[in-house]
Write a structure and sequence with these properties.
The chain has helices spanning 15-42, 63-69, 73-76, 81-84, 88-104; strands spanning 50-52, 58-61, 111-116, 122-127. Helices cover 47% and strands 15% of the residues. By secondary structure, it is an alpha+beta fold. The longest helix is centred in the first third of the chain and has 28 residues, at 15-42. The strands form two sheets. It has a two-stranded antiparallel sheet with strand order 1-2. It has a two-stranded antiparallel ribbon with strand order 3-4. Strand 3 and strand 4 form a beta hairpin.
């Protein structure tokens, strides 16, 4: 069992309020940093960037990804990456490699690949995770 009590401050201020204010400041700084990072990713006209969660569902899709693969961000968000741009012959290998990366920390090697456009055409890319 853990028992906690608030220690009185020596300057008469409420340390709980100060802690809350500090947490809010850190949260705002984080959000501002994330906005700057997203703006940077969007400003790269020839670099397609996709973000996906541990289940391989797309959580980020920049405008260059739309130009390269044909899917809008609205179409891609929430979809499995392998359902969008991974050719069928690579699907099982990609899922296994991603699982090893998440569970064991085994990095997915960077390299040249042929992925898939919305139309089904092959798209040559250099992929790095």
């Amino acid at each position: 069992m853990l028992n906690m009590s608030k220690a009185p401050s020596t300057d008469g201020s409420d340390s709980h309020d100060a802690g809350r204010q500090e947490v809010e400041l850190v949260r705002r700084q984080y959000l501002e940093s994330e906005q700057r990072f997203r703006a940077l990713l969007e400003s790269l006209p020839k670099v397609a960037v996709q973000g996906y969660d541990r289940d391989r569902r797309v959580i980020y899709w920049n405008e260059s990804s739309t130009r390269l693969y044909g899917y809008t961000a609205k179409e891609a968000l929430g979809q499995l990456l392998e359902d969008l741009i991974i050719p069928d012959v690579m699907r099982d290998g990609v899922i296994l490699a991603h699982g090893a990366w998440i569970k064991q920390g085994i990095e997915i090697p960077a390299g040249e690949l042929e992925l898939k456009h919305k139309t089904g055409e092959r798209v040559p890319v250099f992929s790095q995770h």
